[in-house]
Amino acid sequence: MKPSVRAGAAVLAALLAGWAGERVYSGLSGATIAAPPRGSAATPAQSQPANPAGGSEAPPGDAQSAYLPPIKIPERLPSFTLADRSGKPTSIENWHGKSLILNFWATWCAPCRREVPLLSELSASAGPNFAVIGVAVDHRDDVVAFADRFHIRYPLLIGEQDALDAASALGVDSPLFPFTVFTDRRGEVVAVFVGELHRSQADLILAVVRALDADQVTLNLARRQISDGLRSQTKEPQS
Fold first, then answer.
1. Helix crossing, 219-232 with 199-213: angle to 10°?
2. What is the rounded CA–CA span in Å between residue 171 and residue 29?
3. 120 vs 122: CA distance, rounded Å
4. Residue of 37 and 24 predicted with greater confidence
5. What's the pLDDT tens digit per position in 195-239?
6. Alpha-carbon distance 48 to 208, whole Å?
7. How far apart, in whole angstroms, are the C-alpha atoms of residue 31 and residue 239?
8. Domain segments of the chain: what residues?
9. pLDDT tens profile 32-52
10. What number does CATH give the domain 3-7+25-45+64-234?
11. How far is CA 188 from CA 7, 12, 229, in A?
């Protein structure tokens, strides 16, 4: 792992202890920043092996639950370009007009690995107006080998410092993975979910995004519904 990916991990690990707790934050722009009630997130210093075929629930103590303080999330998804699986520079604008499930991850990250089956299911079932895209902040060879081994079919964008720059443009300046950005069809950032995503959380957020895409709710109301819905799940087992 290159120093650019490790940078800040020790500092972040020290800060995480002070940020623990079940919280949902609103960024300065109003987008929902959600800390998962039973999810977990990892820094490079917490690298652990995990088999994505093993399911999405984290074993007790497997990775430290982590929560971000309020950070500024952009109103719209910023434009960025990263290499695809074949090495071709690919702009996120290629999915213009679709609602995105943009998952930032790394092969060394245990909760990231556990998310793979769920993301694969969402890619197959969310519908033609949605796209699941994995943004791997990792070495290309490791990502390609991992994707081949575990049959990842949804698109992947891969980078190191350039992928960290894309994460930073979304308000996540520290190497904390996974986190998932949900946008509507207009490219507006509806929610940023920090930590391991579970089915109930994904279903809740996607239902609200569908209503937003159909002009049944406003963006501000959609963000409130997601925030309130995720809060209500903190007392419920995650699946």
1. 160
2. 11
3. 5
4. 37
5. 899 999 999 999 999 999 999 999 999 999 999 999 888 766 555
6. 33
7. 25
8. 3-7+25-45+64-234
9. 555 433 344 454 544 444 444
10. 3.40.30.10
11. 30, 28, 20
Cβ distance 219 to 191 under 8 Å?
no
Closest CA relative to residue 26, chosen from 171, 160, 152, 168: 171
- What is the pTM assigned to this prediction? 0.75
Take residue 142 and report the two structure tokens written for it. Answer: 């490791």
Give the strand order in the sheet containing 130-137. Answer: 24-26, 32-34, 189-194, 179-183, 99-105, 130-137, 156-159, 81-84, 89-91
> Can you say how many angstroms the Cα of residue 74 is from the centroid of all Cα atoms in its chain?
15
Cβ-count burial 40-71 (b if 16+ within 10 Å, e if not): bbbbbebeeebebeeebbbeeebbbbbbbeeb
Please report, as a single letter, which amino acid is at residue 210: R
Residue 206 CB coordination number (10 Å)? 19
Joined tokens for residue 54: 């093993």
- Looking at residue 84, its amino acid is D
